[in-house]
Amino acid sequence: MRQQILRADLFCRKNVGTGAQMTKMIAEIQELKSKNPATAYTNPGCWRGNAWPDIDIIWLKDAISNLSTEAIEFYEIKPSGNFIINYWANVNQPQSRNVVHNHNNAIFSGTYYLQAESTGDLRFSNPANLIGCCNPDSPFTHDFSFTPNDGDLVLWPSWMPHEVETNFSNKQRINIAFDIRYKNDKLV
C-alpha cells in the first residue's frame, strides 16, 4: 500500500490575455504607480499597489477563476462557499527580488506575468528543507524553479514557501499577484 502524504502542484496557463490587453494593463499599472506610493509591505526595489479604480481586469479574473476551479477539482476540495480573488500589482526594479514567504491565510496563490522574461525565476522550497536539514538524497526536498514568460498565469497552494530571484535584467518585472479565499456569498 502507498498513501500520498504531501502534495503541491503548480498549475499554469500560457499566453493568457492578448497583446493589447497586456500592453494596456502595463500602462495602467505604471500610471497607478506614478500616482501612489508603495505600500509598507513590500521588498526593497518593489512597488506594490492595490488601488484599481479604472483598470480593466475582468478578463484576467475570468482566467484566474477558471484555473482556480481546475485546482479545486484536482485536489477534490469541498468549498465552504464561493471563492474571492484578492489581487495586487508588483513592479520590481532591476536588481530587486522578493524574499521567501507564503500566503498562510489563502487557499491558493498565484501570479500573472505581464513583463517577466529574464527578470528572475519563481522559486519554491519544500518547507521540510527550508533550513537545509534534509538528506540531499531524500525525495522532494529540492527547490523547484519556474521560469516565467510574458502572459503566463500560475497558481499553487498558498502554504508553499516561495520567492522571486533577483531581477538581473535591465527592465522592470511587472505582474499581478493574487490569493484565492472562500467567502460564503457570490464570487467577487
Question: How would you sum up this structure, described in words?
Answer:
With 188 residues, the chain is α+β, with helices and mostly antiparallel strands. The chain has one domain: q2cbj1_9rhob like domain (Jelly Rolls, Sandwich). The chain has helices at residues 19-35, 58-74; strands at residues 11-13, 46-49, 82-92, 98-101, 108-115, 122-124, 144-146, 153-157, 162-164, 173-183. The protein is globular and about 55 Å long.
Look at the structure and give the mean pLDDT.
87
Structural class: alpha+beta
Strand order of the largest sheet: 1-8-5-10-3-2
**What CATH first level would be assigned?**
Mainly Beta
Q: CATH topology, which one?
A: Jelly Rolls
SSE ordering? EHEHEEEEEEEE
Overall geometry: globular
Distance between the termini: 42 Å
Number of helices: 2
Largest sheet: 6 strands, antiparallel
Poorly predicted regions? none
How many whole angstroms does the radius of gyration measure?
A: 17 Å
CATH architecture: Sandwich
Portion of residues within helices: 10-25%
The CATH homologous superfamily is termed: q2cbj1_9rhob like domain
Brief synopsis:
18% of the residues lie in helices and 29% in strands.
